[in-house]
Structure formats: structure tokens, C-alpha cells
Amino acid sequence: MKEVILDKLLSGNGLVWGFAVVALTLWVGYLIGDVLLAKRIRGTAISLVLGLVLAYVGGVLAKGSQGLANIPAFSGLGLMGGAMLRDYAIVSTAYGAKFEELKKAGLIGLLSLLLGIVGSFVVGVVLAYAMGVRNPEDLTTIGAGTCTFIVGPVTGAAVKASSAAVTLSIAAGIVKAIVAILVTPLVAKRIGLTTPAAAMVFGGFIGSNTGVMGGLAATDPALVPYGAITATFYTGTGCLLCPSIGYMIVKAIFG
Amino acid sequence: MEIYGMAVVSVCYLVGMYAGTILARFLGLTGDVGGVGFGMLLLILVTTSRYWEEKIPAKTKRGVELVSALYIPIVVAMVARSDVVAALKGGWIALVTGAAATFLGLLMVPVLAGKAKIQEGRSAAHTRA
């Protein structure tokens, strides 16, 4: 009886409970980062790693595609971490960003956006071919998924790829986001990811909203608006290029 | 009131999304292209105006700061609800392609960001001249 009441209380107040769960995750992350690791790694970065672990546990315990939010008691995380609040908060990070910085790196940002999409697509197609995928529709879809996990299924539907390739393309996109979250804070200084211009370039090359936003949050929150502004064009442009020009080229070479 | 600041973000977001959706339709896509980016540009334009700095009360500005303070917690929630299981179940092809694309992107950052610095130096020299 007690369990039923508790379960209803938590799942019925999902968003409010979500705030507490996230706060606890951040608190533990900062405790590990600041105390155990003596600030060598940002607490935010560790909290994001904890978030990934929780997402894995949630995905294993309850079937579904929403990580920890698959478990009814944690369903509020689905709303809190969903596209609406995410994009709302992202827009607000522009408060305090400098228009001059955006203008200064505008052209380079645009170039990195195009190179980022083409580069990811080519890497995806070539590696998938090397690993035995031969069908041009499936190759295109996996290449598109290597851009982001939204470009993959959109392209897959457009070129009528197999459902296995669509699933694979989503997985490739999620892997990209996860690797960006984990690796970016570790290599940020070495690749010069310390200026607004570099953050715009980073946003264009990585492109995945989750990867760019998580990676920059773990590195330096002041860079977030600059990375986000190029990344926000990535998925749309990818959805435009991959099923059209991308598919034509792949079909011409492998078809 | 703080809610006024939150509403400023709401309006920028919605106008940006509207512009992004129109752009997407124009390109023959569903969804939006750059909606968040347009919203961000609009917010920068609004909040760097003289009117904002001189006439807008501190409580309203705090409302904008409140939303942006929620950014990191929202990113943690976003990560906690991501489909990590699907990523691992995708097998080698997904792991290799996804990871390779990310590493390539990271390696390319200094190449282009270095160019940005040169461009910056040039425009600075230009202004001086």
C-alpha cells in the first residue's frame, strides 16, 4: 500500500520530482569533481556521465527509448529534458552573448557547418561500407545518422531504407552525442575550444544538439550560446542535404 | 516581475521557431531550420538595446537569468532521458561511425578556429587602417 502511494506521488508530480532528481545528480557530480578529484574535472561533466549511467539503467530496467524517464516514477525527466524546455533554455543562454563575436566568426561558423555535415556523412558512409553495408539507401541513411540521430531517420524515410538501417542510424547519432559529451571537456584546451569563435566552429562540426549542448556545458557554460547558434542549423541543413545530394552521390558511386 | 523576463524569452523563442518553420517549408522540409538560432539572435537584439538597459527593471532581467540558470539542470535531464541502450545495441557500425565522426569534428576545430583568429586579426588591422 505504502509503495503504491509513493509511486503515485512521484509519477503524478513528475516535473517537480525531476527537479529534485537532477539536483541530486548535480550535487553528487560536484561532490565527486570538487572533493574527490580536486576540481580536475568539472562537476557538470561528471553529472552528465552520471546522467548517462542513469539513462542506461533506466533503459535496461524499463523498456523504452527515454532512458531513466521510462520508469514511471522518473517520467518527469522526459518533460524536463524534452525538446521544449531544452530549446527554451537554450534561447535564454543568448542573454549576455555578444553580437560582435557572432558576426566575427559568422563565415567560419557557416563553413564549419557545411564541412561538419559533409564530413560526418562521408565518414558514416565510408565506414559503413567498409563494415559490409552495400545497399546505397542504407549507406545514405547511416551516413545521415552519423550527422545526428534526427537526420538519420528523416533520411531513411525519404530514401526508403530498411528499418534495420534506420535503427542503426539513430544509434550512430546517439553514440556521436555521447562521445561529444564525454570527450569534449577532456580535450577542450588542447583543441583551443576556449573562445566564442572556436565554440561556433565546434557547434558546426559536431552539430548534434545533445552533443554540442552537453559537451559545452561540461566544458565552459559561457561558450554554450556560441556553439548552440551554429548547431541549431545543423539538423535542418542535414535533413536537406543528406536525402537529396548525399543520396545522389552515394547512388552514383555505390549503386 | 520575473515572469515578464521569462515571457521575453518565450516570445523570442516562438518568433524564432516561426521563422525557422517558414524557412523549413521554403526548403521543402518539415520541422524547423535554425529556429532556436533565430530566437537567440532576437534575444540578443532585444537585450542589447538601449531601451532594455535603461528602462527594464532588474526583476524582469532576473527572469531571463532564471531561465538560463535552468540550462545545465535541463541538459542533465536531457542526458538522463537519452537512449543509451539503443546506442550500445546498435553494434559496431553505430559505435565506430558515431565515434569517428565526433573525433574528426573535434580534430577539425583548431584548423578552422585558427582561421577565425587570422580573420579577426585582419579585421582589427582593417579597422585601425
The DSSP helix count of chain A reads 13
Rg of chain B (CA only): 20 Å
Distance between the termini of chain A: 62 Å
Strand content of chain B: under 5%
Amount of helix of chain B: over 70%
Apparent shape of chain B: elongated
- What is the CA-based Rg of chain A, rounded? 20 Å
Succession of helices and strands of chain B? HHHHHHH
Quaternary status: heterodimer
Helical content band of chain A: over 70%
Rounded mean pLDDT of chain A is 91
Write the layout of secondary structure elements.
The complex is a heterodimer of chains A (255) and B (129).
Chain A: H1 2-12, H2 14-36, H3 43-61, H4 76-80, H5 83-92, H6 99-104, H7 106-130, H8 136-147, H9 151-159, H10 163-187, H11 196-206, H12 209-219, H13 224-254
Helix pairs in contact in A: 2-3, 3-10, 3-12, 7-8, 7-11, 7-13, 8-9, 8-10, 8-13, 9-10, 9-13, 10-12, 11-12, 11-13, 12-13
Chain B: H1 2-26, H2 35-47, H3 50-55, H4 58-69, H5 71-80, H6 84-89, H7 91-128
Helix pairs in contact in B: 1-2, 1-4
